[in-house]
Amino acid sequence: MAGSLTDLRPAQARLIAAIADHGQLQVAASLCRMTQPAASRLLTDLERQLGTKLFQRTPKGMEPTPAGALLARHARRLQHDLARLADDFTDLRTGRGGVVRVGAVTGPALGQLVPAVQQLKTQTPSVDVSIEVAPSLTLVQALDRGELDFVLARLPPQMDEQDFVVEPARDEIVQLLVRASHPLLDRGPVGMAALRDMRWILQVRGAPIRNAIDTAFHDAGLAAPQDVISTSSLLAIIALLKDSDAVAPMSKEVIDLMLEPPVSADLRRLELDRLLTVAPYLIMQARGRVLPRAAERLLLLVQASIRQM
């Protein structure tokens, strides 16, 4: 069986990944540019070689078995690596700067990733950089699928740490953003009791910053806020703050950016009487995957930036 897998052909890998993604053999065959009978034969031959079923036919379509899910996962990585091989070879032949696909949660995106990308673009203007800013689960799943080179995120509990190369980075400091006319601004550092009856603009339950706020109230012997609007949209937060005395917790890097001209938009930092932090984020790469040269350069710049903090 192991020998059969080491001889897995790219066409087989593409087909397995496409069936797992779309659940229909006909759709997968079309995406792989083959007829449905040819795709069926390819799948049957592979299952015979491996001695196990890879998919079960159900009323909802073709569902991967545990063996099929495992194979599909690695097949996606093979596809990614072959695509990157083609890109890197083209870069080598044409002298282009290469392609980088990275992701981060909001604070590290602004504090470490964006400055590092600007530095990389100064060194190699032709490099093609794509930045994905999203929650950790979205980023780590994309990393696992081979869609991102590395991410600055936290490891979600449903993901297996053994699948990744993990490097500790740093804590995020949480601060509070309010409008310039907020009644608590002239009181100096405020305690949690003074904030109990305020309207809060928070991320969804379970998000790191929301957990930090709930914990701060609990540590002060108070219940978590009840008057809450949940959103992660920065534009929505600005609009909500502009016309109310609501309080929005954000990472320090985001608030620093929000208070700099020309972004500031009549907003202020509300000083707390305590330091709030969330669990450290990590620099994560997919284990066993080779980074493109441009991604390696960007990773070194990010690592250097974090070490200097």
Automatic annotation (TrEMBL):
Output the Gene Ontology cellular-component terms. Answer: cytosol
Q: Where is the HTH lysR-type domain?
A: 8-65
Q: Name one GO molecular function term.
A: DNA-binding transcription factor activity
**Is the keyword Transcription assigned to this protein?**
yes
**Source organism superkingdom:** Bacteria
Q: Which UniProt keywords apply?
A: DNA-binding, Transcription, Transcription regulation
Family the entry assigns: Belongs to the LysR transcriptional regulatory family.
User: What is the name of this protein?
Assistant: Transcriptional regulator
Starting at the broadest rank, the lineage of the source organism is: Bacteria, Pseudomonadati, Pseudomonadota, Alphaproteobacteria, Rhodobacterales
